[in-house]
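Training component of the fellowship. As part of building independent skills, the fellow (R.M.) carried out the full modelling exercise for a liganded target. The chosen ligand was 2-acetamido-2-deoxy-beta-D-glucopyranose. The inputs are recorded below so that the supervisory panel can assess the work.
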Amino acid sequence: MASSTTAAGRHFCFLLALLLLSAAAHGQLSQTFYAASCPTLDQIVRDEVSRALFRDPPPLGGRRMGASILRLFFHDCFVQGCDASVLLDVDVTKGILLSEKDAGPNANSLRGFEVVDAIKSQVEAACPGVVSCSDILALATREAVVALNGTPWPLLLGRRDSRTANQSQANSDLPSPGSNLDTLIAAFARKGFTATELVALSGAHTVGLAHCVNVDQSQMQRCRVPTADGLMAALDDQTPERFDNAYYDKLGKRGLLRSDRVLTSRPDLDAQVRSYSASEAAFFADFARAMKKMSEVGVLTGANGEVRANCRRIN
Ligand code: HEM
Ligand SMILES: *[C@@H]1O[C@H](CO)[C@@H](O)[C@H](O)[C@H]1NC(C)=O
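Fellow's submitted model of the complex:
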């Protein structure tokens, strides 16, 4: 009797160990990944993001950094997956000969690296060596969208950081603002997204600014927002500091980039744009779902990748 219970117990332990091992080996993401190893993570991210949103100079009342973090995450996930490859600086001693941040779509345009560094240093002080830079960027992005009035999405954690960057992929795979609709649809399809998800994710342009070189010829008069970087234009000229559905309002006429304006050129997508313009809740629900999906593109887990000590350098 006792021996059979022990055998059953041993069996159970064995199965449990097998289960845990296979979860680690398959490296699944999970919502509670840091619950035990870094319980203060969420609070640190929230504090640092809100600090950053009051640090930026006007315009947008200091809130542009929220938009910049959101774009940084998109540009991470569309190149090699959400693996913090975009954060790596050139480091010839570590084999990083070309960085993604120097690629055409990113150079002199991506922002938010210092915010990620600030979060990372707080997180390292609280829970050393545990939390990846890719998870920090994923969490900071959700926090930024929420701080700008957007909606949160359920985020799975456990991403690991790349030991490589790929500048040529950043140049080939990040969509450009002069694109036509077919090119945009193809660029998103390459990463596993539908045309419907393209329209939902483009709603990120409800916040933030663009350099005048990227602005559609028809909208040049909007290039009048003074910044430290010269005159820029608001992607959403109604409420560029607020994450809302105003971007979709007459998008075909008011879109700042050609890539925004062409979204209404297919009847079914135009209907989607009009439904988001009529219902912020409809936009928020689809945006949240698409962001969760984007946050899982090409992630490294388990034995792949590493937890960087410094987000700008591989270990
Ligand atoms: C559909 C294809 C897309 C194209 C062609 C595109 C292109 C651009 C361009 C050219 C800018 C201005 C950059 C500058 O002049 O410095 C910009 C800004 C921005 N993009 Fe996109 N984008 C696209 C999709 C997305 C997606 C999917 C997201 C996020 C989910 C996003 C988030 C942003 C944000 C928030 C800004 C403002 C950043 C800031 O103010 O610092 N974009 N985008
Ligand atoms: C970088 O990306 C390009 C384009 O996607 C790909 O062909 C190439 O194999 C990648 N390089 C490395 C080293 O992964």
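The panel noted the following from the submitted structure. The domain at 31-304 is CATH 1.10.520.10 (Peroxidase; domain 1). The two ends are 53 Å apart (CA to CA).
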